[in-house]
Amino acid sequence: MFTHSVPDSRSSATDRTDERESSTAVRLEGVTHRYGATGGRFRSSADRTVTALRDVSLEVSTGTIVGLEGPSGSGKSTVLHAVSGLLVPSDGSVELLGTDLAGLSDAERTRLRRRHIGIVFQRFHLLPSLSARANVALPLVQSGLPRRDRRKRATALLEAVGLGDRTTHLPGELSGGERQRVAIARALSTDPDVIVADEPTGELDTATGADVLELLTDVGRDRAVLVASHDQATLEVADRVVTLCDGRVDDVR
Ligand code: ADP
Ligand code: MG
């Protein structure tokens, strides 16, 4: 369905000049995470601590899609949050493009995330009052790119995901599948090296989900993609599937 591939704006969207290499983009080693383990109201009551991840190790190389499966509560989203630097695990290390996230300040981690990671959520997380194009252009505000170029790039990305005729529509005027394609276009706006997708087809019917998966596969050709899902069709586009069970890696296939 998507005849043209997603535009590469390496030179315009970021100041990165080096070519993307086929190497390990994401590396988790011995990651354990306990929610509620430090500070907060429950500090003294150890039974409020939830161990969400136990000694998880995995790698995602550029040009590879890794699926993350497992029942609800098995730790999939926690892995994605750790990769995105949205949380710092209690133990173990998370490396993004060779940088150990634990060694960074909050601000540095945020900067690294904005520049190198595109995030796709189950429920799209589009801003309802902004047009499709404005949603896609939003992450570029911090890039220093002039407004006109931001709009141009957003339009090109929407065209690439098959929504060239929906640029001025509001999210509420789009179908679920269209919204997710807008969200993927937004995730791609900064031309990230890594795409993290949390149940990206969870809200979509089978046919619409297939479109989104085709797009994700296309996107994964020169990026590292980590996709959490319990949908078999979604896991089928992955080169490798890591199964989590109760916070542990149970299987890799
Ligand atoms: P999944 O995405 O596979 O459904 P999660 O990573 O969301 O799993 O959750 C793993 C475990 O961590 C679950 O037991 C969940 O209840 C717990 N958990 C997730 N987020 C939090 C949080 N912010 N605070 C406390 N516990 C959490
Ligand atoms: Mg989840």
TrEMBL record:
Residues 1-12 have a biased composition (Polar residues). The keyword Ribosomal protein does not apply. Pfam families: ABC_tran (PF00005). One of its GO terms (cellular component) is plasma membrane. Residues 13-22 have a biased composition (Basic and acidic residues). PROSITE patterns: ABC_TRANSPORTER_1, ABC_TRANSPORTER_2. Residues 1-25 are annotated as: Disordered. One of its GO terms (molecular function) is transmembrane transporter activity. SUPFAM superfamilies: P-loop containing nucleoside triphosphate hydrolases. This is ABC transporter ATP-binding protein.
